[in-house]
Amino acid sequence: MSTPTVYDVAERSGVSIATVSRVYRNPDSVRARTRERVLEAARELGYVPSGNARGLASRTTGVLGLCFPDYTDPDAEADGADVEDDDSAVMLYSDQIIHGMERAARRHGYALLIAAPLEGGSQSLVEQVAGRVDGFAVLARTVPTEDLEVISRRLPVVMLAGPREIDHLDHIEVANVDGERELARHLIRDHGLRRLVFVGGDRDSPDAEARFAGFREACREAGLPVPDEPAVRVLMMTQAEGARAAEALLDREGERPEAMLFANDQMAVGALHALEGRGVRVPGDMAVTGFDGIPLSRLVRPALTTVRQPMRRLGEEAVELLVQRLRDRTREPDSLMLPVSVVRRASCGCPPAPRA
Fold it and tell me: Greatest CA separation found in the chain?
């Protein structure tokens, strides 16, 4: 099947080639009804707008792409600067995945192009990446499913994290449910804690929702109340939001919780600062846990109990799947589940691990 062109889109939508071009270069200059007609024709045809279409058709760019939201956290950068000038301390979830992809891409002779949604949103993200790479990895919910369907007709796409939404795409996730369930079990069984609360993310965050599901399973097994919703939800899982969530839980009426479980390490670190400011001892008065295993989790005081996920391996496996798909576009799609592990540290009341 030949690659659809701007001429095909113009013919299908009944407009001029110039109008199709304006839809992608300056969409506000085209009437909304016409713009939608052109975009619908492009989706139906599988047209990918790009000034580098020949590279897309021949798969000869030598570049792999990563579509990832901007997860920068200014508070994490500030903390990292205070910890023995250790640059690795500020590496967050996305940084670790990027590092893994870069390492694997170099091994296979590819460069890596990273794109994050800016003002143009996810549609412009797809447009700027799709024509410049041989294949790309995309974090779940970063790009609308319908756009991924179009792009995946022309080049390999690997989905990172979240449930598998498109059956014919390769997919990698980590055992979020298992990890959070084991962490909550540890607090309940080994520390005898009964009043546990979970601080989650936005409902559109598949990882955060999976971790909340694991928390609920542990509560159900232990005969504890099973919440329908996290005690607090945040839109951005940053240190600042974690601190605000901890403050809100302390100020909430009723009996104070014995443990706060956060959907990621960044929020948990922010909570540690807030609790210290309020005179709440961790772990004496309150246990605190996170999820991810970013370097900062072991450097804060008290060191953070967390669930370590293989973030760099996630990036490396994404490249391996893309390379395999480029070699054989007909093979069956893979769906990988990477294991996680509970890391017990001082913030839940466990003794420090002996130095190696």
Answer: 72
The pTM for the full model equals: 0.79
Q: Report CA Rg, the chain.
A: 23
Residue type, 354: P
DSSP 204: T
User: In this structure, are residues 66 and 132 in contact, taking their beta carbons and an 8 Å threshold?
Assistant: no
190 with 305, same domain? yes
> Same structural domain for residues 290 and 319?
no
pLDDT tens-digit readout, 218-239? 999 999 999 999 999 999 999 9
201 close to 232: Cβ distance less than 8 angstroms: no
Q: What is the torsional sign of CA 143, 68, 309, 192? A: negative
Q: Is residue 354 part of a domain?
A: no
Sign of CA dihedral 91, 160, 227, 188: negative
Average pLDDT score over residue span 158-178: 90
Write out the residue range of the structural domain in which residue 259 sits: 176-309+343-348
| Same domain membership, residue 65 and residue 142 | yes
Mean pLDDT of 331-356: 89
Q: What is the arithmetic mean of pLDDT over 36-48?
A: 86
Are both 216 and 319 inside the same structural domain?
no
What whole-number distance in Å separates Cα of residue 213 and Cα of residue 143? 24
> Is residue 52 in a domain?
no
Q: If residue 197 lies in a helix (H) or strand (E), which one and from where to where?
A: strand 196-200
CATH number of the domain at 233, please: 3.40.50.2300
